[in-house]
Each structure stands twice: as structure tokens, then as C-alpha cells.
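Me: Here is a favour to ask of a fellow structure person. Could you put it straight underneath, so I can go through it closely?

Assistant:
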Amino acid sequence: MAYLAAVPQPIALFPQFIAAQPETLILKEHVVSLTGDSFSIKLANGTAVLQVEGKVMSISGRKKVSDMHGNHLFDILKERLHIHATYVAKSPTGEKLLEVKSGFKLVGSKATATFTSTSGKQETLSMKGNFLDTSADIIDETQNGLVVARINRKVLSGKDLLFGQQTYAVQVAPGVDFALIAALCICLDEKNNEK
């Protein structure tokens, strides 16, 4: 698997999570979770970096994302009253950090994320997946289609079939915030769970 090229300038919501080198994240949905859809997010070397806790009684499917010190970074939730599925990441104070809208594509899936990077630049990242949604590229539309992350979803293991558990391996380019990329993956998972 070839590494992704470094981005010319950082793409981030959380500077403390900017990848200094090519990184691979492993997002693993918990098989049995009393709180709803919950994930553990680790680097490929096994270092835990983020924890995602689903709220079981939430109409919006709220997910709380924290670092490994318990600091609440943001929530992911579905916004209602949109033609296309729309997810947002909000700060603990309720400020909208990121919006992800799914689009219509005849084959595969497509979603667009918009946000203001820590540099103050307006960013647009597109997720374009294959027919079975087993993989997707996350592309920086402001950098002539530069691939900044690549998602590979492991499918059809015994646990996937029996419990509906998902595991994602995500390559992240140097200079890209992996907490941001994890948020996009969770939005993609939520969208896929609605099918």
C-alpha cells in the first residue's frame, strides 16, 4: 500500500492531531456496547488516540468524541430536515465545526465536508466511495483533487455478519488532522447504517 503525499499546508480542526508522518488509523466499532454505536480509534501501532461514545437514546444519533485523557473534543450528530443526509461536528459549547452532506451518485457513495481549518482557510473535502462502500478516497477539492486520506473497510468477517460491527483502516497523509478524518469516517458509517 503506497503512502499518501504530504499536503502543502495543514488541514486541521485540532492541531494536536496533525499527522507528522504517514499514519494509519484503525477505527473499530465495539461489538457489544450499551451506549449505542461506539468506536475505539487507534494508530496502526496500537496506540489509542480517540474514543467515540454513542448515545443510545439520541434521536440525532449523537456521538461524543474524546481524546484519551477524557477531554471532550466534539460531538457528531445528524441534522434533520435536509434533503440529503447531513451530519455535523459540534464543539462542546455547541459551535458547528464541520458539516458533512451526502450527495447523489449513481454508483457508490459521495459526501462533501466543509469547515474552516485552523489556518482560517475554508476547506472542502470530498469522500468518494466504491459501489459496496468498502473503500473511499477523501480528496481536498481546494488542492486540485489531492487525496489526503484513504478509507478501507474490512467486510464480511464473522463479527461483521453476526453483530453488524465495522472496522475501518484509514491512511492519513502527513499534515492532515486524523481526528478530523476519524469524524468523516464516523459520518460515513452513520450514513451506511441508515441503508
